[in-house]
Amino acid sequence: MIKRISSGGEFEAKVGYCRAVVAGGFVHVAGTVGQGETVVEQCRNALGVIEKALNEAGSSFKDVVRVSYFLPDRHEFAACFDLLSNTFGANPPAATMIECGLIDPKYRIEIEVTALAPQSR
């Protein structure tokens, strides 16, 4: 069974995707950008959107097994370390950071996660 979770974000309809898909024992959360002026504000906002999708799927940050961070400027990543460390706490996932262009230059970070689905825990 596949469950699709939409957040109603502007790019979901434009690009043709949903915020998260629960399938194969995992919750796959699409790359998520956040609102705000700074990389930390955008990171915090993106994590909030991701948390909402995980909760709707019956999961949480403690169930995340993989996270990917995409930033147009790798030098900004260090500013997010405390926030990310506090978010994942004692349950850190495997992680990758990639420096790349994002869909709009106003975005400073995009975050994608994979978590265990409730029936897989």
Automatic annotation (TrEMBL):
Enzyme type, top EC level: oxidoreductase
EC number(s) from the headed UniProt entry: 1.-.-.-
Entry keywords, A to Z: Oxidoreductase
Presence of keyword Oxidoreductase: yes
CDD domains: YjgF_YER057c_UK114_like_6 (cd06154)
GO molecular function, one term: oxidoreductase activity
InterPro entries in alphabetical order: RutC-like_sf, YjgF/YER057c/UK114
Pfam families to which the protein is assigned, alphabetical: Ribonuc_L-PSP
Protein name per Swiss-Prot or TrEMBL: Aminoacrylate peracid reductase RutC
Species of provenance: Pelagimonas varians
Species lineage: Bacteria, Pseudomonadati, Pseudomonadota, Alphaproteobacteria, Rhodobacterales
